[in-house]
Design a protein that fits this description.
The protein has about 230 residues and is α/β, with parallel strands linked by helices. Helix content is about 45%, strand content about 20%. The chain is built from 8 helices and 11 strands. Strand 7 (about 140-145) and strand 8 form a beta hairpin.
Length: about 230
Amino acid sequence: MSKRIALIEDDAAIRENYTAALNKQGYEVKAYPNRALAEQAFANRLPDLAIIDIGLQGEIDGGFALCQWLRNQSKTLPIIFFTARDNDYDTICGLRMGADDYLTKDISLPHLLARIAALFRRTELLNQPIQQQDLLECGQLVMDSNRMTVSWHGQAIELTVTEFWMLHAIAKYAGHVKSRQQLMDESRMVVDDTTITSHIKRIRKKFIHTDSQFDCIETVYGMGYRWKC
């Protein structure tokens, strides 16, 4: 059974192009030009994954509102922001509202498809039994690479796909410095140093929200980042 993707995008050309491209990959795509039509459809049936632009037909932040609405309907529905707005403020807002990923429209189609596949893989594996070989344990940190879950002192830490693999790259070899290039390779993305720094800051903040004494991610200036057990 094909996965159902909802694309919420107010630009007709972009909407049609990506609908066609995703259909060719075997996905069932339903596209909506605005928040009202999307919410009306989702009230009857949620998609398997939602791809949302931020600005939607007269609503400069309509995508943010839709993301919050969707997250209230489902805690596990994969949500991707796909937007031309490439700045830290919007990225942070989007991820704080519960999106799993934040991508800009200048990325390649294969890159987008890889991120969609990663989110579907995580969703499908959430209910499968935990396998010991999938667990990474380092002190109070426990990561399950199959289910993409993280806990610290027994408390769940909610990370996006990108944040998960960045943290995994650092914690897998505790005490060793991981360069920014290695973090990009591990999380399968190509971004500038500023964006990587922003991701690391958000990861730290999520741990500190649970544990105010958290200080296990060390910045090694000029080299990269290191996990201290």
